[in-house]
Structures are given as structure tokens and as C-alpha cells.
Amino acid sequence: MLHQHTGEEPCTVSKVICEINIAAKKKIRVSHAKSNTRVIVKIRTENSVCVEAAKDMPELARFTLRDEGKTIALGKVLSVDESY
Q1: Looking at the DSSP assignment, which residues form a beta bridge with residue 75?
Q2: Domain for residue 8, yes or no?
Q3: Is 32 inside a domain boundary?
Q4: Domain ranges, residue 39
Q5: How confident is the model at residue 39 (pLDDT cuts 50, 70, 90)?
Q6: Which of 27, 33, 77, 78 fits 39 for a cystine, CB–CB 3.0-4.6 Å?
Q7: C-alpha gyration radius of the chain
Q8: Which of 74, 13, 81, 80 has the alpha carbon at shortest distance from 52?
Q9: Structural domain tally of the chain?
Q10: Counting Cβ atoms within 10 Å, is residue 2 exposed (0-12), middle (13-18) or buried (19+)?
Q11: What DSSP string runs through the chain?
Q12: CA distances for 80 relative to 49, 52, 76, angstroms
């Protein structure tokens, strides 16, 4: 479940793009994410969601992913794909 401000929307993580290694300042291609790592993922929602990229409007770029009442990820929108 994607939580953003007061909105909630069912979502799925459709693709893990890469992991970010902060110490080495590198992006590493991975197929899954481990706990306590930073990753870039592609998320697909069932309906449209009002979000903006962090570079355009940081106030609308923060979100939380929750599953069964537990927070599993905190995130920031890097880009928006409006093609679907």
C-alpha cells in the first residue's frame, strides 16, 4: 500500500532497477532488495496518484510503502511515467 500525504493506493513494485552504494557512490544492478539498503524501483499503482518528481516539487515527492500495518519503505519520487 502506497501512502502519500492523506492518500492510500494499492501498488506493486514492478521492477528493482538498482541498488545505491552510498560509500562507493555507485549504482549496482540487483534483482532484489535487502533490508536497510537504498534502491531505485519502479512502482505501479492501480489508479492515478497525485505525485511530482522531487526536483520539481519536493513536498509532493515523499511516500511510504506499508504492508500489513508495518512500514517497509520510505521513498522519494525521482521521476513520473505518465504513459499508462
Answers
A1: 63
A2: yes
A3: yes
A4: 1-46
A5: very high
A6: 33
A7: 13
A8: 80
A9: 1
A10: buried
A11: -EEETTEEE-EEEEEEEEEEETTTTEEE--SS--TT-EEEEEEEESS------TTT-GGGSEEEEEETTEEEEEEE--------
A12: 10, 7, 11
Query: Confidence band (pLDDT; 50, 70, 90) for 84?
Result: low
Predicted confidence at residue 83, as pLDDT, reads 73
Cα dihedral sign for 5, 11, 15, 19? positive
* CB 9, CB 43: distance < 8 Å: no
Contact 54, 78 (CB under 8 A): yes
Q: Does some domain include residue 13?
A: yes
The answer to whether position 66 is within a domain reads no
pLDDT at 3 over 90: yes
For 44-69, the pLDDT digits (tens) are: 999 988 889 999 999 889 999 999 99
Partner residues linked to 22 by β-bridges: none
